[in-house]
Each structure stands twice: as structure tokens, then as C-alpha cells.
Design a protein that fits this description.
The longest helix has 17 residues. It is globular and about 45 Å long. The chain has 6 helices and 5 strands; from the N terminus they run βαβαβαβαβαα. 41% of the residues lie in helices and 18% in strands. With 161 residues, the protein is of the alpha/beta class. The chain has a 5-stranded parallel β-sheet, sandwiched between helices. The structure holds adenosine-5'-diphosphate. The site of adenosine-5'-diphosphate has 16 residues, from α1 and β4.
Length: 161
């Protein structure tokens, strides 16, 4: 069975993330979408909120499971018997970051590969932080996050003002 892990902060999840999840679910038998808990990174949405949103938008994908972890992603992947870690690659900043992560991961476990997927054209410039900024400054996020989450994400971000 081919198993992949797609880790991230998903703070909040965007159409870019969902696109990567849907495309990955076509390639692998089982995909773990993992909210990675990083105590050094402050997030707006709680882990439970992020997992709940991910579960709802992936309910149509029967080979996708949503989890969270405090472990190093590479160790989590090994524990889940995954052969591949999936990441999205938007630009050269992502590229540099991903190359560094890959180097560390290789030192820990050479058997787990990293696969990078380019975003679909509509999502190239999309990031969770730009979604948060757009809401704070009154911009429209309707085409950037899954439809069923638009109002919830807006309300939640506005409550932080
Ligand atoms: P970020 O890195 O923006 O804080 P995440 O940690 O939630 O966001 O990202 C998880 C993964 O999803 C990363 O590999 C990131 O590059 C990828 N990703 C984020 N936004 C997009 C997008 N719009 N299209 C494709 N991949 C994306």
C-alpha cells in the first residue's frame, strides 16, 4: 500500500491546500493530512479547529485521514509506514525552505522521499497568512478558501481584531 503524509500548519486551510490533498489522494492509496504542532509557531486557529475544518472539506475523499502530531514529521511518517512526504512548492522561498527540510530529513531517514507538487494556477500566490491579512483589512476571501468555510474563517479571524 502506498502511503503519503501531507503536513502543514493549515492556519487556516486554503483552496491551495485542498488542491494538493485532492491531487495526492489520486496518486496514493492512503494520505494522512497532518496538522503539525510547532510550539515555536503561534497560530490563530486551535489544533482542533484546524483538524475539524480539514476533516469537513476532505469528507468526500475516502482515502484521506486527518491527524495531528507533535513529532518530527519524518518520524511521524515512519511510524505511519509512509514512503513519501508531500509538500507544495509555490515559489523560490518555498524551494529554499523545502531543500533545507529535505536535507535534515535525509539525515534522519533516507527511505522516506519528499515529493513537491506545484499549485494549480489559481492558487500560486495563495498563503494562509495572506488570507488572514485580507480578512483583517476587509478584503474578500471567497475564492481562496473552501466555500463551506468562508463565513466561519472570516468570523473567527475578525474576532481576533
Ligand atoms: P505555510 O507554509 O504557508 O505556513 P502550511 O504550513 O499550512 O502553510 O503549508 C503546508 C504545505 O502546503 C506546505 O508545503 C506549503 O508549501 C503548501 N502550500 C501552502 N499554500 C499552498 C498553495 N496555495 N498551493 C500549494 N501548496 C501550498
Amino acid at each position: 500500500m502506498r502511503i503519503a503524509v501531507y503536513p502543514g500548519s493549515f492556519d487556516p486551510v486554503s483552496n491551495g491546500h485542498l488542491d494538493i490533498i485532492e491531487r495526492t489522494s489520486k496518486i496514493f492509496d492512503l494520505v494522512y493530512v497532518v496538522v503539525s504542532i510547532n510550539p515555536l509557531k503561534s497560530t490563530l486557529f486551535t489544533v482542533d479547529e484546524r483538524m475539524d475544518m480539514l476533516k469537513r472539506i476532505t469528507s468526500h475523499l475516502h482515502n484521506v485521514q486527518v491527524e495531528c502530531t507533535k513529532e518530527l514529521v519524518i518520524n511521524y511518517a515512519q511510524r505511519k509506514q509512509a514512503s513519501v512526504i508531500i509538500r507544495g512548492l509555490r515559489n523560490t522561498l518555498d524551494y529554499q525552505y523545502e531543500m533545507t527540510l529535505f536535507s535534515y530529513n535525509q539525515k534522519i531517514n533516507k527511505d522516506i522521499e519528499t515529493m513537491l507538487l506545484f499549485p494549480s494556477a489559481d492558487n500560486l500566490f495563495l498563503s494562509s497568512s495572506s488570507i488572514k491579512e485580507l480578512v483583517i483589512f476587509g478584503g474578500n476571501i471567497d475564492s481562496y478558501v473552501p466555500k463551506m468555510l468562508v463565513d466561519e474563517i472570516k468570523t473567527r479571524i475578525q474576532s481576533q481584531k
